[in-house]
Amino acid sequence: MSAVAKIAVHVFRDSVRDKVLYNLVLFAVLMISASYLIGQLTAGQDIKIIKDLGLTATSVFGLFIAIFIGVGLVSREVRRRSIYTILSKPVRRHEVILGKYVGLVLTLAVNLAIMTAAVYAVLGYMSLTESEEFKRGWEAPATDPAMLVAFLLILVQLMLVTAIALFFSTFSSPMLAAVMTGALYVAGHFNADLRSVHEFVDSAVVGALATGVSYVLPDLAAFNVTAQVVHAQPVGLAYVVAICGHALAYIGVLLVGAMSVFSRRDFV
Amino acid sequence: MSSSKSDSVGQWLSRPRLVAGVMLVLWACGVGLRIQGERAYAFLEVEDRTLYVRSGAVLGRMALSFDPMLADAYWIRALQHYGGTKRAGDPTKNFDLLYPYLDITTTLDPRFDIAYRFGAIFLTEAYPNGPGRPDQALALLQKGWQQMPERWEYLMDMGFVYYWWLRDYDEAARWFQRASEVPGASWWLQPLAASTLTQGGNRRDARFIWGQMLESAADPWLRNEATRRLFQLDALDELDRYAAEAEQFETREGRWPASWRELTDRPSVVPPLDPLGFAYVLEPSRREITLSPQSPLLPLPAAPLPMLPQ
Asked: Interface pTM (ipTM) of the complex?
């Protein structure tokens, strides 16, 4: 097994042992189950609400995991001084960063798989218990496989957020890294707005600056296809491939940056 | 001294059953005191009827990727506002927030089909069961149509608002006609448009529209609403029939019938029932026959549509 894989497995095991992680998954599963009760209040919109809430809960709790574990990946090793032990082994610094990243992505993927299964279980239960007459009102089948596209894009978005968190964690404190990651997450949702700022401002400089920033920031809103899948609107394969490619490119930039910073960092 | 106290607290805390018992007692005290407080001082109910952000576009930005979830939250708020206000006994009640809630819901999730269609029904319902705002219903349906031009149902619903609530049959016919021109529209819209244009509003067409809605609507709530409207039309027919019989009785006897036994000439004193099983009320002093005040069919359409001449 390569050094990267060994570190990744270690990060995954460490995360699985982390009780905070269990609490988040449990809370997400509880929330998804609670959506069944909320659905009763919505004049026949149970399935829509359960899908919306399920996808939102998955995204929110995945985001918490990505940020709060991601920002501690490097700093925790430095604080515990276990980084010396790691670096004394035959492992290169960039392999540490890659291993940490892959490990956390693996953790996220497993968590997301559990949450996805929980959402489908609730929807499957609804589908079994509702009458055929009631089902006629649904825009898409309860256990519509098309929802997997939304889950996939949530995972890819979280991979990108993890890369952002890991990048910041290589040179700042966990608190600061969490704040900066959160800020970038919010700013990334305004990418489309930044691109259209020049239409509303008189200053050409401000417009050009906003457009420039929009090219620097990843477009995090592009990963949100919840409304489309819930309303049974097709999400084209070309779009999914392009957005995943967009994410992979930014992840590449961030990981290269993180490895570069970490390689130059002095731990003395 | 301090160290021994700390030790005893430590020993105490290391006994899980004792700790659990103390926690349970404290929790019970907390709940009991809250109940006692509520009994001692009943707070005036202050209804929070403030909508801090009225722009769906702003809320959409604030929601980041979670706008569909926020749309659901506003939909639930719209339902609660409508249902809660409808049931409230307050004579000054109003439905002022209903349209903003529905507008925000449909801005956050522009394909929230049922929010347009149910919302229009809520908005048109006459006061005190609703705000009685067909203008807002039309605006909401227009918004839905702009988002989903392939949905002929919005055009039909707009035609129906003109037909049922505004009694503007030319306009109703125009919207039925436009609905019929959308690919995939139901076959009956074209004849309905022609009939509305030539004959104006009548119960037969109204019954036909609601009947089609009952058959075609996939949503159970819409079908329930259509069933209720059909029952209202049945009740209107029955009330007209009993009123005609009462007039005949008056012509014959020189007075309004004093009881159902007199009017229906039946041995039983049990009054006839409306389609939902509530007894019709005969009021000789006011010379009228009405639905029971408890009947869920109330209120009937403000100015009943005329029956077609037989």
From this structure: 0.76
